[in-house]
């Protein structure tokens, strides 16, 4: 069954055609076949990519078995870490973002950098699924949260500004548009600025960005525009990142630059730097450690990172088919009140 554009008007501008299994999209629960087709807008020049991706659910949502795999327009399984291009339009500095966590939700979903094909799955702590706490006055994630593909914060590189090494993940993005995105959605964003968080001694950049399709995108072009048009949002972002681990018994996170956001130009250069680290990783110039660099579109056939179509199908085949959604624990909805220091 195909959910046609007219049936989901809120998504029509993004050109979304959905065949999804038990997934909430912008408040609408769809119980249909498993796969979400996300089609990018038509190319307007040679620098802009016209790409489409689908996501395929495996396992049972809200359980340890759940995985979200990606396919390209040819039906080939791809890695959201390695195969989706960083740029959507290089000439305009428009980047792709893979949405891992829709705004207002609590499930800590992330690209599984150590798993074959790097599907999205829920983070696990001590054998239990991880949910972020609602630290008053916040509810879940306060942005659409995701990552820029083909980037990597190198744990072997000590950043000159933060004095700390990278956190071994793709660079994170907080998308601040009006629409609540869906998990696995691949969107195009323009970058507005960046926050340098220090998480347990590691550099963990947080890029502020907005979907280019958002009605507010034309008015938001740099970090100062967020302060002007969305007063309080930047302060709330720092507060969220500072305190979100406290309910788990962790100390408050710290920030470089005294928690002050850097502007768009600084952010873009930071992203380009992490792209350079990723290129060194995928070309075997940097030790991968525990990361899984298998990909189906980037590496040459003689590379150990090259994953054939049959290998990719086998990876997905080893997981369980999409099953019944489990209930999210009621405790996830509790408020956590914590006095600011």
Automatic annotation (TrEMBL):
Signal peptide extent: none
Sorted UniProt keywords: Acetylation, Hydrolase, Magnesium, Metal-binding
GO biological process, one term: phosphate-containing compound metabolic process
Thylakoid as UniProt keyword: no
Enzyme Commission no: 3.6.1.1
GO cellular component assignments: cytoplasm
GO MF terms, alphabetically ordered: inorganic diphosphate phosphatase activity; magnesium ion binding
PROSITE patterns cross-referenced by the UniProt entry: PPASE
A Pfam family matched in the record: Pyrophosphatase
Enzyme class of the recorded protein, top EC level: hydrolase
InterPro entries on file: Pyrophosphatase, Pyrophosphatase_sf
SUPFAM superfamilies per record: Inorganic pyrophosphatase
Record-stated family: Belongs to the PPase family.
Subunit structure, interactors included: Homodimer.
Protein name: inorganic diphosphatase
Organism for this UniProt entry: Oncorhynchus kisutch
Source taxonomy: Eukaryota, Metazoa, Chordata, Craniata, Vertebrata
The encoding gene: PPA1
């Amino acid at each position: 069954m195909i959910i046609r554009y007219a049936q989901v008007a809120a998504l029509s501008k993004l050109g979304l055609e959905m065949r999804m299994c038990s997934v909430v999209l912008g408040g609408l629960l769809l119980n249909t076949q498993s796969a979400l087709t996300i089609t990018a807008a038509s190319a307007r020049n040679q620098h802009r990519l016209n790409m489409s991706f689908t996501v395929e659910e495996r396992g049972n949502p809200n359980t340890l078995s759940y995985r979200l795999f990606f396919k390209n327009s040819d039906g080939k399984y791809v890695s959201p870490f390695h195969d989706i291009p960083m740029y959507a339009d290089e000439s305009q500095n428009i980047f792709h973002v893979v949405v891992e966590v829709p705004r207002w939700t609590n499930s800590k979903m992330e690209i599984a950098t150590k798993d074959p094909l790097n599907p999205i799955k829920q983070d696990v702590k001590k054998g239990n699924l991880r949910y972020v706490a609602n630290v008053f006055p916040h509810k879940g994630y306060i942005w659409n949260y995701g990552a820029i593909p083909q980037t990597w914060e190198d744990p072997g590189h000590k950043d000159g500004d933060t004095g700390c090494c990278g956190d071994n993940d793709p660079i994170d993005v907080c998308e601040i548009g009006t629409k609540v995105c869906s998990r696995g959605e691949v969107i195009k964003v323009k970058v507005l600025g960046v926050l340098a968080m220090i998480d347990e001694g590691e550099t963990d950049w947080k890029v502020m960005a907005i979907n280019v399709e958002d009605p507010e995108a034309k008015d938001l072009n740099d970090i100062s525009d967020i302060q002007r048009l969305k007063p309080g949002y930047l302060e709330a972002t720092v507060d969220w990142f500072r305190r979100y681990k406290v309910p788990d018994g962790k100390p408050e996170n710290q920030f470089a630059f005294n928690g002050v956001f850097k502007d768009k130009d600084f952010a873009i250069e930071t992203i380009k730097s992490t792209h350079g680290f990723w290129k060194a990783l995928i070309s075997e110039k940097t030790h991968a450690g525990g990361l899984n660099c298998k990909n189906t579109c980037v590496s040459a056939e003689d590379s150990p990172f090259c994953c054939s179509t049959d290998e990719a199908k086998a990876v997905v085949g080893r997981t369980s088919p999409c099953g019944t959604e489990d209930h999210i624990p009621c405790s996830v909805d509790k408020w956590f009140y914590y006095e600011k220091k």
